[in-house]
C-alpha cells in the first residue's frame, strides 16, 4: 500500500513517498563512493528493512532516486525470461543501479540489460520502480511495462501506488485518485507533506520528502508528521559511512527526548506516547 508522487516546486524536483508494510522498523545507510572493478561508483543513501544489499529506495550523489511500490502478482506484467549475463534480485537492483547511473536514461538502460528475479520475501508481491533524476526526467517500470522517458513540468507529474499504470482506469485506489487530483495544486513542501499524510494508512512505516535538486530529504517515522529527521546527502557523505536504525532516529528527536526528562515514574512503568505533558508519568501501560 505504498504511494509515490513527484512534482516541481520552486524549481526543485520533489519526491514524496510513503512506505507501507505489515511491520514497523527500518534502517538508513549512507554509503561512500568506492572503486568497483576499476571504476569509481557513486555515494548514496539507502532505506531498507531486509539488508543494505536489498533496499526499498535510495538516492545517489548525482541526484538520482529509485523507489518501489508493491504490485500483487495477479496484476504484475511479468517480464519474459532472458539470457542476460547478470541476474539481480528485485530489491538488489536498486543499489546496483544507484551505484552506477547518474541519470534516468542511464538507469533504465541498466534495468533493460539485466534479468530481474523475484525477491523471495513475499511470494504474492512484485516490485514496481519509480526512477527519477534531478533534471525531472522519470520512468516507471513494472515488469515488462515501462513508460516512455518523460520530464516533470507544470502539467506532468508522477503518481504511483500499487498497480501498473496500464490499469489506472480499471483499478479502484483511493490513494491514487487523491494523488492524481491534488498534485497539480501542490505549491510548497508543506503542502506536499500534507498530501503524504492524506494518503498514509495505519500500515505506513515511514514517509520521506526528497529534494533531488538539493540532494536533501526529511524522514518521518510511523506517521508522526510533526517530527522529522533531516539529512543532506553530500554533508553526510563528507562525514563518512553512517548507519541509523529507525529506533535510534526516533530517540534522537527532541519531541521524544522530552517525554523522559521529568518522568521518573513513567520511565519505570511505561507511559503512553500519545499522552499530554501533564499526564506523563501518570498513565502507566503496565502495573
What would the keywords be for this entry?
single chain; globular; 32% strand; 19 strands; nine-stranded antiparallel β-sheet; alpha+beta
Question: In percent, how much strand structure appears in the residues?
Answer: 25-35%
- Count of DSSP E strands? 19
Strand count, sense and barrel status of the largest sheet are:
9 strands, antiparallel
From the helix content, strand content and strand pairing, which structural class follows? alpha+beta
What does the overall shape look like?
globular
Radius of gyration: 20 Å
Mean pLDDT: 90
SSE string, helices as H and strands as E? EEEEEEEEEHHEEEEEEHHEEEHEHHH
How many separate helices? 8
Low-confidence stretches: 273-287
Intertermini distance: 37 Å
**Residue share in helices?**
10-25%
Question: How would you summarize the topology of this molecule?
Answer:
Elements: E1 3-9, E2 12-20, E3 27-31, E4 35-36, E5 39-40, E6 44-48, E7 57-60, E8 65-72, E9 87-89, H1 92-100, H2 104-111, E10 115-117, E11 125-132, E12 137-142, E13 145-146, E14 150-151, E15 158-160, H3 174-182, H4 189-198, E16 204-211, E17 216-221, E18 229-232, H5 233-238, E19 242-245, H6 246-252, H7 254-261, H8 264-269
Parallel strand pairs: 9-10
Antiparallel strand pairs: 1-2, 1-15, 2-16, 3-6, 3-19, 4-5, 6-7, 7-8, 8-11, 11-12, 12-13, 12-14, 16-17, 17-18
Helix pairs in contact: 1-2
